[in-house]
From TrEMBL:
PANTHER family: PTHR40606, UPF0339 PROTEIN YEGP (PTHR40606:SF1). This is DUF1508 domain-containing protein. Residues 10-56, 62-107 form the DUF1508 domain. The lineage of its organism: Bacteria, Pseudomonadati, Bacteroidota, Flavobacteriia, Flavobacteriales. It comes from the Bacteria. Gene3D superfamilies: 2.30.29.80. It comes from Epilithonimonas pallida. Signal peptide: none annotated. Coiled coil: none annotated.
Length: 110
């Protein structure tokens, strides 16, 4: 079962990582000034991860593949790691789709 882990960055902003059942990070959020906005981002991932068109497949300057997940307004709500193959990236998208809807939220900032 997947987990959303909320942490606080060195700059004081909140972020979340979505981890798959095996503990691997499959999606990382942008930074949020308020924890409540971070939690809203998690809810947005749960919803938008079920819509394939919200995943944008990209290639980094080092030629590695990655994806971003966008909200309905086009704003990026999460970014994947870099993958060495397109199939690895596609597997990452599948993992987000499978894990996000039922993932528990763990707040490590308390």
């Amino acid at each position: 079962m997947g987990k959303f882990i909320i942490t606080k960055r060195k700059d004081g902003e909140y972020q979340f990582n979505l981890k798959a059942g095996n503990g691997e990070i499959i999606l990382t959020s942008e930074g949020y000034v308020a924890k409540s906005r971070c939690k809203n981002g998690i809810e947005s991932v749960k919803i938008n991860s079920q819509i394939d068109s919200r995943f944008e497949r990209r290639t980094a300057v080092n030629k590695k593949d990655y994806f971003v997940l966008k909200a309905g307004n086009g704003e990026i709500i999460g970014k994947s790691q870099l993958y060495s193959t397109k199939q690895g990236m596609e597997n990452g998208i599948i993992s987000v789709k499978e894990n996000a809807p039922t993932a528990e939220i763990i707040d490590e900032t308390n």
